[in-house]
Specification:
With 178 residues, the chain is of the alpha+beta class. It contains four helices and seven strands; from the N terminus they run βααββββββαα. A four-stranded antiparallel β-sheet has the order 1-2-3-4. The longest helix has 26 residues.
Length: 178
């Protein structure tokens, strides 16, 4: 069993953005005479960045547990955000790459896992230490269960050195593989 958490150093930039996103609008609201419309816009921005900061804190406090049975996400809010995807009950997974530059360099990957019960999904991004190992376990479980791999995920797996870019076809009836 491996327990993974997002390190603070990976989240510092998110905390800084959230802090400035709250501080600047609140400062403008308190120390300048804004028109009512602009005041409400600043208030909305402060609330949005506050939510972003809370989401970042929740992400820092959440543990991702990977073992022989599957992946569990356990957070400080308990059952509200806790998720579990067992390897045997995994419905599908997606591996996406998000580039921050036009040439495709610089970016991050996001792994999305879903189970057959449809009780939500687990999203893991490549800033998490051990992301490559988790992705390898997910890929092996998907291959063992005969899950279809979409072309985008297959290409992203190949870029990580997993698979060979092969794309498994989904069943013709659109259902889940047996």
């Amino acid at each position: 069993m491996n327990i993974h958490r997002y390190p603070v150093k990976e989240l510092v930039s998110d905390y800084v953005r959230a802090g400035f996103g709250v501080l600047i609008p609140v400062s403008l609201m308190l120390f300048t005479g804004l028109l009512p419309l602009v005041f409400y816009i600043m208030m909305a921005l402060a609330v949005l960045f506050g939510i972003y900061g809370l989401r970042t804190a929740l992400r820092q406090a959440t543990a991702l547990i990977v073992d022989d049975h599957g992946v569990r996400q356990e957070g400080p809010l308990g059952a509200i955000f806790d998720r579990k995807v067992s390897w045997a009950r995994m419905r599908d997974f997606r591996l996406r790459y998000f580039s921050t530059r036009r040439d495709g360099t610089e970016g991050w990957m996001q792994l999305i896992l879903r189970d057959r019960e449809g009780r939500g999904s687990i999203r893991i991004d490549s800033h998490l230490p051990g992301f490559d190992d988790i992705t390898q376990q997910v890929y092996e479980a998907a291959r063992d269960n005969g899950l279809a791999i979409d072309p985008t995920s297959a290409n992203n797996l190949a870029s990580l050195g997993l698979g060979d870019g092969e794309v498994a076809q989904a069943p013709a009836d659109g259902g889940l593989p047996s």
